[in-house]
Amino acid sequence: MLQAQNLSCLRGDRHLFEQVNFTVQAGGLLYIVGENGAGKSSLLKILAGLSQPEDGKIFWQGQALTTDKSSYFDKLFYIGHLNAIKEDLSTHENLLLWPYSHQLMDLNDAVSRALGAVNLLRQAHLPARLLSQGQKRRLALARLWMATEASPSAFLWILDEPFAALDSVMTDVLAKHISQHLQRGGMAIVTTHQPVAIQAVETQTYRLRE
Amino acid sequence: MNSIYFAVIKRDLLQVYRRKSDIATSLLFFVMVASLFPLAVSPDPAILRQIGPGVLWVSALLACMLSLLRLFAADYNDGSLEQLVLSRHSLSLLVLAKIFSHWLLAGLPLVLLSPLIALQYDMSANALWVLVLSLLIGTPALSFLGAIAAALTLGVRASGLLMPLLVLPLYVPVLIFGAGAVTASQTGMDAQANLSLLGATGLLLLLFSPWATAMAIRIAVE
User: Which helix H or strand E contains A189, and what residues bound it?
Assistant: First the structure.
């Protein structure tokens, strides 16, 4: 269970948002919506523990997040608006040498399965800089399939605009994968501008206003 | 060995292997700077012997600094640094792995190349050995200090200009001990005192630098 209590964020001398409260239960999906500049990405960074809220607290499984977040990070999976792709490495190597991958047993197979899931197998040995914008996003999202294999237990996914730059086929594939994650008892917090069909035990929408 | 630290090091090494010009640039810089002095100052062996240790150490130090720009900047720009911060493993140790790969790619080649360049300065065999040894002990300290400066200037505009201002004063003790060791061996004195101080500096930085760098990175990705 993830709980946000009175979160607020200050950017410069302007309050991006104040008094953000919500609770995400196991199997729950939370959409964070709002106009451009409303602070969606900043909120996600705070929830991921990357930055500190100006005020308020985050509770993970009933415990407030402290300075030592390693047990939280262990259960957290975050994909920001940056893809974290190394352009000089091949598509395959990008997943293979991704620092989280070492936990997997048959790593090469896991990478191939993940690339297959996002339909990048034909580009497996191409340098990542040759991929298109949408393909790079798919490569970044392929880590969600790796994450599922590395840690099938309950897991919090925080995804910043995962559906941006994806075609309709891939949007459906990803929505289905997130749905499966939620059915296993995972949680997801997603920002999106387009309606997508993700099945969750409980779906909430939190709207950020300027 | 199949650990997260190994993956971090391997990823850095493989990227540079794919783009070898990165290493070549800083090595060529070292060679060029060190070769300009005999042309500019004097071809007199006595003078060259005297300025040799200082020039070689300053050139190595500048070349090392040049390569600092790529230590964290690319990871910061493409989002990989965020992912490292979000690892359940200690960020300080992950940073140490990155510093180690930086030293392998920027420091070690300088150490290996230095005796060849030092021949221009008419140095004795003994002095050459001390030079190699002092660089071997000193370049990790340069990487440690550089990592702190590189992390502090992440996301800063004109970081390429700011970083030298930040890092060069910090390099001063390493430079004094390093060049001092070589000069001492040339004048027939024992270089051990300077080398020991150089080693002590390196060990102190081994403890302090990964921690300080990790703190700076946490602030940078906020």
Answer: strand A187-191
